[in-house]
Specification:
It contains 17 helices and 13 strands. It is α/β, with parallel strands linked by helices. The strands form three sheets. Strands 3-2-1-4-5-6 form a six-stranded parallel beta sheet, sandwiched between helices.
Amino acid sequence: MNILIVGTGYVGTTTGLIFCEHGHKITGLDLDERKIQALKGGSLHFYEPGLQDLLKKHTQARNIVFTNNTEKAIKENDVIFICVGTPQGADGSADLTFVKNVAKSIGQHINRYKVIVTKSTVPVGTAEIVTSVIKENQKAPIPFDVVSNPEFLREGSALDDALHPDRIVIGTTSETARTIMRELYKDFHCPFVETQPKASEMIKYAANSFLALKISYINELARVCDKLSINVNDISKGIGLDQRIGPQFLKAGMGYGGSCFPKDVNALIHTAKQQGTPLSILEAVVKVNTEQPVYFIEKIKQALGGSLQNKTIAVLGLSFKANTDDTRESPSFILLDRLLEEQAIVKTHDPMVKSGASHQCMTIEETVTGADALVISTDWDDYKHLNWGRIKPLMKQPNIFDGRNMVDKERVKELGFYYIGVSNH
């Protein structure tokens, strides 16, 4: 098929390249000329393992092309994926400005029947809104169908997730559109969930919110384990082996972040309030997640004598998780803000994120030199396999605060480090 991907960000680029792998011809449309030029040259404007090689492969083979010509792109393609951002508004709701702008352009330039697919994470009822906006902007009544087809990509492992999905969700009331979507995904071997657009839109929010719930649950439980001198990792393992629960997202740490979980949980809470049915469990999830980095800061503060003033703190990791350069809603920045409020001297490092801040160092060694404490904030493998014997002499005080429970604590204790994890007794 000839497929148009509107929005060449994380979701759009990944989606387009996966369809290339299945033999489709893709056009990537974006109004950001900088992104378009980079992609035309085979360069990603974000980091995702394995995706750069795939981009070079398919740009060279001309299986994917990039453009900022909206009218031409819409007219030449029969399936249009909307993959633009839906940022969080001030009230927690999802801002549909970009989605509506795309729908308006489709209405203005539609020239024959097309299937319009919302891939972006959007609130329940968005398919109806997109339909209305397209109709309002048509010069003549040309038929089309709108389908909800949410993405379930994890940053850092998006390529594998997209190639081998757990499920494909298709929300439409049109049998014609359903047939086209089945054909589009015919080579994907996974369960299909075919439902109404509203249910499809809710599935995405419900899935992300449930995963966020698991993270906040184990983090709050870790605080109780701290009081009882219990290793929360043992608890995670013990309950995660129950097939009804599963081990995923039960690793205690500094809380969830990124472009999806915080925004999607808040958007679902907002939707529920609009319907007069507050989601108190999810409201608690947000509260626990907000408190988690602050809780960890207090542990650091207590261990360093009750004050962080003029203490040099080395923070390893800025991205919200490993294998991505995404810093959106990263717990690391809550940590940094609090450290600076406490008048600590902050030094930071990340293998992929280049923040441009004066406190960021080029090497781990430079970051830890003269530090009173080292804080692991992101679970990069670079930090898991550090040569601790080499690190210790560089530090002013050998204190490790492991916000990801990833360090071999017995090993570093043998080397003379003082170690504190997240309820990692």
